[in-house]
Amino acid sequence: MINKKEDIPVFLTIQPKVLYFGTPVALITSIDKNAKTNIGPISSLWALGYNLVIGLGCDSKTYQNIIEIKECVVNLPSADLFENIEKISNLTGLNPVPANKSGKYRYEEDKFSAGNFQPMAAEVVTPPAIASCPIQLECVLQNHYIVESTIDFIPLIASVHMKVVNVRVHENLVINQDYIDPSKWSPLIYNFRHYYALGEKVGKNFRADV
Ligand SMILES: Cc1cc2nc3c(=O)[nH]c(=O)nc-3n(C[C@H](O)[C@H](O)[C@H](O)COP(=O)(O)O)c2cc1C
Fold first, then answer.
1. C-beta separation of 54 from 44 below 8 A
2. CA dihedral sign, ordered 114, 79, 53, 57
3. Ligand 1: nearest atom to the Cα of 60
4. Could you say which of 74, 97, 152, 204 is the most buried, measured as most Cβ atoms within 10 Å of its Cβ?
5. Residue-wise pLDDT tens digits, 76-120
6. What residues line ligand 1, using a CB cutoff of 6 Å?
């Protein structure tokens, strides 16, 4: 059916200052060559099969650690952890603080303490996981490429493809052995720089097994 012109809502052409349209928050734990651990909050990520693709600023300790060590844990916090995440959101593990973050961010070598997070050993990869995050995806680097650079070719943003090699899930969320119960899991959503939990369930896909 073709809409009548008066049925079509009014749209504005704008240049949004923020384009974070609502993706889950993840906390990436990584280590550097001196085994110093770091936590990087991110929200630019998607999963298909056992692949994760993550958008990372190249001037982050997280990106540099992943490129160097080729491993990380992608920890998924539940919605109630947003205050811990905000405690570390203006921190970087890079020292000195990169120029474009100066004045807004400060160096912190122990983000676990700063955010009141407890490390726990991962099963397969070397970086630790975060005990309070109910879903932990242990990953190895598969590939990466630069998405955006400065005019003098300094890398700004990278797309990082990680292979998920081991998945750890809090026992309360596991159903039928190898499924995560969507009625119990409460992801934290980053919606135009505001934190949200999910609303009510509105339906299910024809392929949903549980
Ligand atoms: C909720 C949230 C989501 C973020 N998403 C991303 C992201 O997807 N990619 C990214 O590179 N930085 C993202 N950031 C910013 C990084 O966390 C920030 O650059 C931080 O300083 C990185 O820490 P690091 O330098 O110790 O790795 C996000 C920050 C917050 C609080």
1. yes
2. negative
3. 25
4. 74
5. 999 999 999 999 999 999 999 999 999 999 999 999 999 999 999
6. 25, 38, 40-44, 55-57, 60-62, 85, 89, 92-94, 105, 190
